[in-house]
Amino acid sequence: MRSVLILSTSDFGGAGLYNKEILEGLEKCGFEVQMVVAKKRSDSNLVSVVPLSLWQRLINKYGRYIPFTWKNRSLKAKKSSNKDYYFLEPFEQRTIYTFRQILEKITIKPDVIVACWTSGFLNFDILGKIGTYFSSTTYVYTADMSPFTGGCHYAWDCVGYMHNCMDCPALCLKTRHLAAENIVKKKRAIEKYGIKAFAFSDFTFNQVRQSSLFKYQEYIPSFQGLVSEEYFYIDKEKIIRINYSIPENRIVVVLGALNLYERRKGFKELINALNLLQREKPDLAKKMLLIAIGDEKDIQCSIELRFLPFTKNLKILGDYYRLADIYANASLEDSGPQMLLQAMACGAIPVSFDTGFGSELLDGVTGFKAPVGDINSFSDKLIEAAELSEVKRLQMLNSIAEKISRDNSLSRLHQVFNSL
User: Fold this and answer.
1) Which of 24, 68, 256, 320 has the fewest Cβ atoms within 10 angstroms?
2) What pLDDT score was predicted for residue 260?
């Protein structure tokens, strides 16, 4: 029986819950597993939390207010950074946790160690030391770009990560050197400890291979994530629509959690595409109902819009997706998102920009994609999805079901981790 150790900043929040799902999936597959975190909210006995000493807690809480400390400098650098790049840890190679503290909480002897979103918890050097201590194969999971950049989670058009991250556009002039320093420290640890990148998708692995840190790494099968059959399945009778008072003849388009202020989510482009659809196909637009997952906002959209409250409850989220005929993903910069896969599993035809999963998965057989930022094309793809004949829709849903079963099941999870 192989043993897998997952290291994560938390077991809650988007990344934390995702990592916990992988953990529980691996246990179902027969692996010996443990997850070690800096912050814990679940009652799972598979998850262990690393406690801080009183002194560490004080530094962690008040260090940001003490001039010239790395916590204080990091906060200032983050505040002055370009928010589009998500440069969350300017001093990302600094951590208040020690190798010994983390080591003491590990109760298994792992064959494989995977670091998944460890911001503020551990760095490449500590990760490498843990792997060396147990003689484990050690990976960083690239659910976004931060493991192979100087610190940004989304590089946009910047190609600095392919070289040395000099003159980082995410940081202000005074702190721009930090990205290059982070790259140097990561590279030193990668070469010393043999750390490898384990990709979220083949789309992300192509980015990994372009980076200066992992450009010589051999191909490692990617894993897009586990889609639970318990929560994400098709409601063939559309019973759920009755519960939400939605007529069966409405064409329902579900939108992911809306964020008016986050450029990468493509909110502006999505609304423009929907308004264009209404002008070009007014009769079709009258049949459409948009359901946005998130807090209600004052949005000027020419198509009827209803809000459903944001939730992390997978059962409720599955119900939201089962309302949909179409799932619209307008992300301009993304490595996923996981919501796209979950909606597809619930019977929604996906329409996405050509990035992340949208680039990798949607080929006209399993869904539709448009060039990134191309509003006209995105509108056309929404129309094409809405006007699918019943026969073609069923064919597409069958292709989607085959894809989910092949790539996002427990058997795929077992296969990939068994090969690491």
Assistant:
1) 68
2) 64
Alpha carbons 331 and 255: distance in angstroms, whole number: 11
Q: CB of 124 within 8 A of CB of 150?
A: no
Query: Omega of the bond prior to 337 within 30 degrees of 0, cis?
Result: yes
pLDDT band at 99 (very low <50, low <70, confident <90, very high): very high
Q: Are 89 and 74 in contact (CB under 8 A)?
A: yes
Q: How many helices (H) and strands (E) does the chain have?
A: 16, 12
Enter the DSSP assignment of 218: P
Decide if 381 contacts 368 (C-beta within 8 A): yes
Pairing label, strands 47-49, 32-39: parallel
If we measure between CA atoms, which residue out of 297, 312, 382, 418 comes closest to residue 12?
A: 312
- What does the DSSP 8-state code read for residue 147? G
In tens, the pLDDT along 47-64 reads 999 999 998 888 888 878
Residues 6+ positions from 179 with CB-CB distance below 8 Å: 87, 149, 150, 151, 152, 160, 165, 166, 168, 170, 171
Reading the block at residue 346, the tokens are 């619930």
In sequence order, what are the beta bridge partners of 270? none
* pLDDT band, residue 262 (cuts 50/70/90): confident
Q: How far apart are CA 334 and CA 355, in angstroms?
A: 6
Phi/psi at 172 (5° precision): -75, 170
Give the C-alpha separation, 213 to 146, whole Å: 11
DSSP summary character for residue 51: P
Which residues does 214 contact at the CB level (< 8 Å), separation at least 6? Answer: 148, 190, 196, 197, 208
| Nearest C-alpha neighbor of 13 from the set 40, 49, 48, 36 | 40
E runs forming strands in 124-260: 137-142, 196-199, 251-255
Q: Model confidence over 289-337: pLDDT tens digits?
A: 999 888 777 777 889 989 998 888 899 999 999 999 999 999 999 988 8
Alpha-carbon distance 69 to 33, whole Å? Answer: 37
Number of Cβ atoms within 10 Å of the Cβ of 302: 14
